[in-house]
Amino acid sequence: MLDTATNQPVLPPEIARRRTFAIISHPDAGKTTLTEKFLLYGGAIQMAGQVRAKGEARRTRSDFMQMEKDRGISVSASAMSFDYDQFRFNLVDTPGHSDFSEDTYRTLTAVDAAVMVIDGAKGVESQTQKLFEVCRLRDLPILTFCNKMDRESRDTFEIIDEIQEMLAIDVTPAAWPIGVGRDFIGCYDMLRDRLELMDRADRNKVAESIEINGLDDPKLAEHVPEHLLDKLLEEVEMARELLPKLDPQAVLEGHMTPIWFGSAINSFGVKELMEGIGAYGPQPQVQSAEPRQIAPEEKKVAGFVFKVQANMDPKHRDRVAFVRMASGHFKRGMKLTHVRSKKPMAISNPVLFLASDRELAEEAWAGDIIGIPNHGQLRIGDTLTEGEAIRVTGIPSFAPELLQTVRAGDPMKAKHLEKALMQFAEEGAAKVFKPSIGSGFIVGVVGQLQFEVLASRIEMEYGLPVRFEASQFTSARWVSGDKAEIDKFVNANKQHIANDHDGDIVYLTRLQWDIDRVVRDYPDLKLTATKEMM
Ligand code: G4P
Description:
It contains 15 helices and 31 strands. By secondary structure, the chain is an alpha+beta fold. It has 3 domains: 13-280, P-loop containing nucleotide triphosphate hydrolases (Rossmann fold, 3-Layer(aba) Sandwich), CATH 3.40.50.300; 289-392, P-loop containing nucleotide triphosphate hydrolases (Rossmann fold); 399-532, Peptide chain release factor 3, domain III (Alpha-Beta Plaits, 2-Layer Sandwich). The strands form 7 sheets. Strands 27-24-26-25-29-30-28-31 form an 8-stranded antiparallel sheet. Strands 2-3-1-4-5-11-6 form a 7-stranded mixed sheet, sandwiched between helices. A hairpin with a 4-residue loop joins strand 16 and strand 17 (343-346). It is elongated. The two termini are 33 Å apart. The structure holds guanosine-5',3'-tetraphosphate. It holds the Pfam family GTP_EFTU. GTP binds at residues 25-32, 93-97, 147-150. Keywords: Cytoplasm, GTP-binding, Nucleotide-binding, Protein biosynthesis. It comes from Ruegeria meonggei.
């Protein structure tokens, strides 16, 4: 059944109130600050500064994090839940650095919307654009927050034009900034005819709202200094004439993004953005799967793993699989079927992430993200159901673009190294190939920095110094097809053959010419640059 007002299915209230989203941005645009303010308003933390402070504490505990700190990047993603108004928000954190985009892409399969944060002085930056393209592939609804308006920023029309042009999406102003830089006093709420005034003296104070009866209301002049008022009136009039009107359906379809202007650090515009996510960010959506889609309102529980994080606490060597609930009402202790192995799993210690604390999740609804501690059974792309053999699709695996050989500093520790590498392969942090001839492993990643993170994590989590060295290979292709044909191919190309962490056969080479030759000589074999996560 469709709700006539929103054109969305009518869902049970507990599901309908969920908003599961990620923030996409270029490093430094203000994602951490905005997250912190979300949590502050959501009551998940008491004081600004805690996300960062907890981040620091976490960093000192586990160690690749030293590198993270040095470089000022965030490589671990997690999920946070908080309530605001009648909504339950599930914010899935995405790592910011482009070398971790694999992880980010997969994270985006677990959300129903994205908040795009841009810096008002810098506009659309490279990483924002890249992430936006991924959202577009899935037609994810996007809400935009233009941050740092308390600083000198670009002209509002210019910012909007840039987004429209660079990202090919309609932009509709939900708010209009009044003044720039030092003169910035707040926004005119275009949707509700309200003035939102920023309090510069108190960074944690929520903006004062003043109801206005349209742009002719004399009350405007009482609050907006004369030198800003004329410009505001002129700009809002122009914006209403020239820019598209908010069309909630177009937002849901990913063709239009509403934009709010604010200053996260001054807590300004954040509440309006949250209300916007509540009003326009979609409720949990249908999940693509095979042999059939999963609808959130289905009574039976289904969920899928989009991320695995190992050694969150090095003392316990645990692994947490992050599961997006796709349907139903999950209760702690439920037995679910792990579809890949067809085995039942009792989910007795699921965790919810409130700010950066973990709590036992007594229940979860479609849209929620829970963490399931496990010993390696759960892998990225796995589906959990109440028995039905159904598999969530669309979780990407990326072609490794850089290959290097890895060796343990101490050759006696080869087994340890293998264990560490397998774990990272299962986490989806790298592709690991064991050549059929010779010793050592070949590791494939998407970005150079991933090698450094791996080396650092292997050393810290397994006490094993390792070296990455140039490999004689530059490309990897998964081989599939008829078994006899594969055997023939493998025997004739032993020096190019390796197995990945699942034991699947991979052809390694440095020449496109070799790949073309295989395709020609073995027409029944299929060579693919990626393997769907399953
Ligand atoms: P990120 O997660 O997207 O990388 O950005 P983050 O929130 O860490 O913000 C990057 C920098 O921008 C931080 O300054 C932060 O304080 C600042 N910032 C965030 N929002 C605003 C805003 O609305 N206005 C202004 N003027 N600055 C803002 P930093 O100096 O790098 O860190 P810190 O010393 O403040 O912690």
